Amino acid sequence: MPPNSYKVRTATAGDFTAITAIYAHHVLHGTATFEIDPPSRETMLERRAAILALGLPFLVAELEGRVVGYAYTSAYRVRPAYRFTIEDSIYIDPDFTGQGCGRALLRTLIDQCQRGPWQQMVAVIGDSANEASVRLHRHFGFEHVGTLRAVGYKFEKWVDTVLMQKALRVLG
Fold first, then answer.
1. SS3 at position 19
2. Which of 13, 22, 16, 21 is nearest to 92 (CA)?
3. Which burial class, exposed, middle or buried, applies to 104 when counting CB atoms under 10 A from its CB (0-12, 13-18, 19+)?
4. Sequence-ordered strand ranges (E) for 21-156
5. How far is CA 133 from CA 29, 39, 64, in A?
6. Three-state SS for 49?
7. Rg of the chain (C-alpha set)
8. Are 155 and 133 a contacting pair, CB within 8 Å?
9. Residue 68 CB partners (closer than 8 Å, separation 6+)
10. What contacts 62, CB < 8 A, 6 or more positions away?
11. Fewer CB within 10 Å of terminal CB in the chain, N or C?
12. Considering the entire predicted model, what is its pTM?
């Protein structure tokens, strides 16, 4: 499916049953996130509120009225010196992976963040075997800046984290 087939928009509270289900699947079956227990809908809404309070985007991708993916940015670190660096997160319904949804979401996320004060976007990708996420980020100009070896333990195995980075504007 072409990325322009998806309607990307700001997430609303009404989207959070679907968002919570998508994330729960990734928590329970994947290593893109290092969470072990899926958070509740209420917890996911609280996380969204914290993101929006920072002026950061929280988006969904819809296809024929169905939420099939979501993406957001969050503060990379809490210390003030990091205030111009953000981290992206993208989760896709497993029935829609590899069909352009991630591209549609990341394109919009980057576009919106380039209009704000942020200088750098960092992708902290769970699992060095997560080739789809690495490819997606590389497609949008993210560069591999490091791999943290065996920093997570999930599903009875040690898991790496891949770090990728993109400048949102030319620093001068």
1. helix
2. 22
3. buried
4. 58-63, 66-75, 85-92, 120-126, 143-154
5. 16, 22, 24
6. helix
7. 15
8. no
9. 6, 22, 61, 62, 92, 93, 95, 96, 101
10. 6, 7, 8, 9, 68
11. C
12. 0.96
| pLDDT tens by residue, 65-101 | 999 999 999 999 999 999 999 999 999 999 999 999 9
The amino acid at residue 120 is Q
Give yes or no for a contact between 58 and 10, defined as CB atoms under 8 angstroms apart: yes
The dihedral built from the CA positions of residue 1, 102, 49 and 54, taken in this order, carries a sign that is negative
How many Cβ atoms from other residues are within 10 Å of residue 4's Cβ? 11
Residues 6+ apart with CB under 8 A from 127: 30, 31, 32, 152, 159, 160, 161, 162
DSSP assigned state of 97: T
